[in-house]
């Protein structure tokens, strides 16, 4: 297969695999697609370790890194000395009533406290402020990455420049045609147009409706994202005008993924109606597994969610506590509607190859239908 | 183009056009697609007039009729003598607080009362109960229709039989794979798998995710619906495994449509973010133009919506009053996300032909990309 994207990045198939798991990233790149490591959860030191591992295991094939530099978040204008200072200032902005709501919810489900040694020791800010994402970008650019992607709007212009100076291409996710135009204005090389059915942070326009609108307003290549997990969906995305596909949820259940077993079981059992767009994870709308956690934040006694990054700071410890408990009914995570079609565990390579085969079959079938 | 659907119905292009406007229905059928008249708003007598007109103006080409026989609605089990009796019994089930909420909302926007001669004279029940939809079916089956479609779930088995006895094919809309299986069990010939981006009554799974799942669980042909307004989207729907496309919103703005001018202007100006899935029209989730009407029903002081058919009975007069007023901020109607891509008025024939041309271009491009 050949599109502007395969030419630009030197890959065999225009299949991009977003994953927080280095094994998946390396496996997809080795199979001819392009793995993209989500850096969000890693400190700069941890990210360095992950990328060094990928450098050794991707077989010299191109791979990418995805960071989250939101165009807007609480505390963006604060004059702070360090990430620690920023965290302290932001912690003070979380209302007591919200903390109580979370405590009560966990108590109602019998979720145990963290041991004293671990309370408050978790990562509460992650890479979604300028101050915390920039060190990740610096680490990423020290590695032979082919692509730097930004998950929430246009990256800062100087980040785009720094990437380009090192021969790294830049992609950014867009959920409206207007977002896409702004991204191209700051120099983005590839627009990832992502429909509402996608997992994680997402807009409200569907992939079917969004892709042609984005393709028509930008001259850079577009990847179709949201709801894409098989080759028919890949062909559909390309029929809409995209030059490749950006996938995420489908990699949660592959053999290589470090997805915890309870989460994997729930993904394999879920239908496409078992996700919901919710602000209860980060404060910005993200598609998550629908359960008692997401529903509690919508209920009548919910205090409402806080803006990014306060919401995750509020719930960070709670999510760790839930993860260690038996309260599976509260354990949520980003997941797209495609999880309803995922019901077996395959290797990443098999997913890539099956997607390509099914893509070719779909295109041949279309040719036959129109004579 | 040739699929099982074109063969089954003797049409040139597998493009189905749902419209409440007879002119659109006839024009699409004459252009080689298949117009399908939405019967919902018509009394049996009115429907007779519309279908007689289409018989004269469709040039002998196949056309269809769409009715709404929901599988469940309030009052379904009532023992009533007549539709009028049913209306009276159902009126008694509408809480006073809900009537007051509607009155207050309209007063706040300066919407005038109806003249005494017209108050309560409007249609409040429409064709969405068994008692009111069956007479529509009887009228439809007296005409040379090729297709009878049901918009809310599987039609009653005896209706399917009556249609088949007259050589009429039956279609039904499905928003989950499970719905589709049930429809095939009652004898439906074509499943219309409709994604959440569609206008009117709709589920929550996107077209991209839904179509392959439906195609994989039924053996009858599937039409892709939801978000389809151009040939790239048609090609995408077919790539997903569909054998044709079912379209709706795109016909609201064609030359032949009887869409009121203010509504047409708003459609042409809207973005794809200007719709919302709301129960404020009929009590079941339907995608509508998002405005102060839909928002009022979501606000903190909303009494919540009533189940079908009570909600429309409650708001029927209000919608007529709004339609006659200058309160455009309250005037809503069913509309899919595709309205964001509709910005010119074309003839129905031009829409059909452009869709086919663009479909062919998209398929040829796919062939080139994969060599």
UniProtKB/TrEMBL annotation, chains A, B:
- CDD domains found in the cross-reference section: NPD_like
Q: Which InterPro entries match?
A: Aldolase_TIM (IPR013785), NMO (IPR004136)
A Pfam family recorded for this sequence: NMO
| Record-given protein name | NAD(P)H-dependent flavin oxidoreductase YrpB (Nitropropane dioxygenase family)
Q: Which UniProt keywords apply?
A: Dioxygenase, Flavoprotein, FMN, Oxidoreductase
Alphabetically, the GO molecular function entries are:
dioxygenase activity; nitronate monooxygenase activity
């Amino acid at each position: 297969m050949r599109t502007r994207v395969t030419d630009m990045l030197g890959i065999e198939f225009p299949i991009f695999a977003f994953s927080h798991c280095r094994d998946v990233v390396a496996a997809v790149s080795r199979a001819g697609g392009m793995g993209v490591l989500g850096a969000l959860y890693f400190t700069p030191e941890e990210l360095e370790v992950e990328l060094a591992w990928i450098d050794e295991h991707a077989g010299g094939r191109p791979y990418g890194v995805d960071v989250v530099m939101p165009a807007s978040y609480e505390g963006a204008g604060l004059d702070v000395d360090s990430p620690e200072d920023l965290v302290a200032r932001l912690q003070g902005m979380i209302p007591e009533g919200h903390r109580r709501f979370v405590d009560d919810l966990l108590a109602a489900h019998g979720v145990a406290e963290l041991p004293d040694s671990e309370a408050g020791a978790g990562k509460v800010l992650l890479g979604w402020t300028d101050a915390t994402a920039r060190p990740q970008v610096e680490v990423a650019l020290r590695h032979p990455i082919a692509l730097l992607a930004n998950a929430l709007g246009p990256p800062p212009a100087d980040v785009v420049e720094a990437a380009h100076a090192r021969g790294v291409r830049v992609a950014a996710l867009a959920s409206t045609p207007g977002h896409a135009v702004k991204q191209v204005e700051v120099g983005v090389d590839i627009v990832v147009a992502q429909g509402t059915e996608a997992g994680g942070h997402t807009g409200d326009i569907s992939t079917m409706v969004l892709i042609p609108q984005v393709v028509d307003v930008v001259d850079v290549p577009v990847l179709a994202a949201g709801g894409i997990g098989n080759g028919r969906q890949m062909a559909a995305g390309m029929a809409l005008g995209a030059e490749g596909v950006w996938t995420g949820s489908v990699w949660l259940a592959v053999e290589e993924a470090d997805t915890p077993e309870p989460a994997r079981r729930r993904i394999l059992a879920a239908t496409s109606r078992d996700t919901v767009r919710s602000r209860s994870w980060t404060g910005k709308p993200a598609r998550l597994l629908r359960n008692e956690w997401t529903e509690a934040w919508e209920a009548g006694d919910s205090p409402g969610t806080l803006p990014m990054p306060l919401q995750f700071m509020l719930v960070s410890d709670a999510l760790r506590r839930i993860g260690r408990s038996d309260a599976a009914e509260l354990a949520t995570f980003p997941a797209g509607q495609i999880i309803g079609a995922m019901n077996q565990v395959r290797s990443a390579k098999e997913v890539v190859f099956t997607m390509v085969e099914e893509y070719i079959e779909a295109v041949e079938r279309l040719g036959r239908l129109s004579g």
